[in-house]
Design a protein that fits this description.
9 helices; 75% helix; 0% strand; 205 residues; Four Helix Bundle (Hemerythrin (Met), subunit A); mainly alpha
């Protein structure tokens, strides 16, 4: 099934997000090519992961808009959103010739938040494991997968504190707006789940 007009509009918005972020990074005066790639990988990954999350309350609308099942669309963005943040510290380690970028720092508290991208990566993989192991943890996999939101919180704080490109209004507003939409999605999704649970609950006499 081909993309609908709404699907094409949504795809155009996504491309505009990536184009705007990329242009903002490439026109900034910071760093060598590898440093630029380190920053782009983080920003591109955050966009993909945010979109994957923002889509979750709209299960029934995704097929109508994209002409594909929800899981196919969601998993495509999620896969990109996991791959690129994984490559981000790899490129950073190569650029700095230092494997310390993979080691979380928990103290002092301010340093934890400055380097919050490090634990965010591991939490991201724990959230992924929640999906892969859902057959074995049927009652808990949604809670484990929900750690994705924790990873996004850590990532956006990390970016705002030390992200070179967050000096750009385009980058700062785009990423922070996506984060706000992600939190709104979390609230909407929880409300949907509570509503369904109430409907399934037997009425008392």
């Amino acid at each position: 099934m081909p993309l609908t007009r709404s699907g094409l509009l949504f795809a155009a918005v996504i491309l505009a997000l990536y184009a705007g972020i990329t242009a903002a990074v490439l026109t900034s005066p910071y760093g060598d090519p590898l440093n630029v790639m380190v920053r782009l990988l983080a920003l591109w990954g955050f966009i993909a992961l945010s979109i994957a999350t923002i889509l979750t309350p709209f299960l029934r609308d995704i097929r109508r808009v994209f002409g594909r099942p929800f899981l196919a669309v969601h998993h495509t963005f999620a896969a990109v959103g996991i791959l690129l943040p994984t490559l981000h510290p790899v490129a950073a380690a190569i650029n700095a010739a230092d494997l310390a970028v993979f080691i979380p720092v928990f103290s002092p508290w301010t340093t934890f938040w400055v380097l919050a991208g490090r634990p965010a990566l591991y939490i991201l993989y724990i959230a992924l494991a929640g999906v892969l192991l859902r057959t074995y943890i049927r009652e808990y996999w949604r809670w484990v997968h929900g750690l994705m939101y924790v990873a996004l919180v850590l990532a956006v704080v990390h970016g705002n504190l030390i992200g070179t490109d967050f000096q750009s209004p385009i980058v700062r507003w785009t990423i922070n707006t996506l984060f706000v939409l992600t939190i709104a999605t979390f609230v909407i999704r929880r409300w949907q789940m509570m509503t369904r649970a109430k409907k399934r609950r037997p009425q008392s006499a």
